[in-house]
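Let's practice the habit of predicting before peeking. Look at the sequence and jot down your guess about where helices and strands might fall. Then scroll down.
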Amino acid sequence: MQSMLWQNGALVLLDQTKLPLQEEYIECRDYRRVAEAIRRLEVRGAPAIGAAAAYGLVLGAAEILRNQADLAEELPAVADELKATRPTAVNLFWAIERMMQVFENLQQAVSAPEIVAKLEAAAIEISDKDKQVNESIARHGATLFTNPVSILTHCNAGALATVAVGTALGVIERAWREGNVSEVFADETRPLLQGARLTAVELSQAGIPVTLITDNMAAWVMKTGKVQAIIVGADRIAANGDVANKIGTYGLSVLAAEHGIPFYVAAPLSTFDFMLASGAGIPIEERNPEEVFQFAGVRSAPYGIKAFNPAFDVTPADKVTAIITEAGVIRAPYKEAIQQLAQKMKEETK
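Done guessing? Here is the structure:
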């Protein structure tokens, strides 16, 4: 399975809402369908939606060109619509802003058809770079494990959440190949079951022993010594090291601290929001309450009640043992380490 493919001027997305029972693909020929796919979680995972949005901007630019309209007037609206799909994952904004910078650098220098071609090349570069970045994350993360351990993970941070390889699961798979993972416990991740539907599939296909648990079993799994480490992905990391990730992650970090278990976060540098002082400023997406009222599409709650459905929570930096990036593994004090990363990225883009 592959999360996305750019083919003949269309973005082909694996419909992750149909997994694991059906493997279906969506052909997106306009940016509106890409935006819809991001909102519906047909494509999901911070790095994946960033890459998908980049391709969405290409489709929008191509449509504007076909309509003989002005790119400078209409492309910003396309970018804004794509940005509005999901508020928490910073990779989405990073990818669109990078694409718009390419446009702004070119708009006075080359023709509109050339601009569209350059935007396509930039989106392909973002996509290709994601695989390389994740391979580096996996390599650095695997060095944290020198003996076989059992690992717990939450939600899905595998190849399906990226263009390829994955972040947290990329680390796990690399460590498994090196003989340093004995088993993985996967939280099912309510309410949309990304752990059950996606992570369990990816791990089993890789031949890694995986045990599925409900989210409220994690404390007992830790208490009884069944796991020795936790690795999760991230949707946004603030400048002080606070981490936004799928709802339930914060609870795991508290439990890990209580039981003396290292809590690792694996994420690319594009997930860092260097301008955001702390996690208190991270916008938390709230989704349709109907997701909570149902289990696997079947109503499981009475009518006439309310539901609270935040998609993410924020783990304080002091609960994070280390953050694994393509630039290496960083540890507290995070503010200083992240400042150094920001400076390095700034110098590399000059």
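How did you do? The chain has two domains: 4-133, 136-348.
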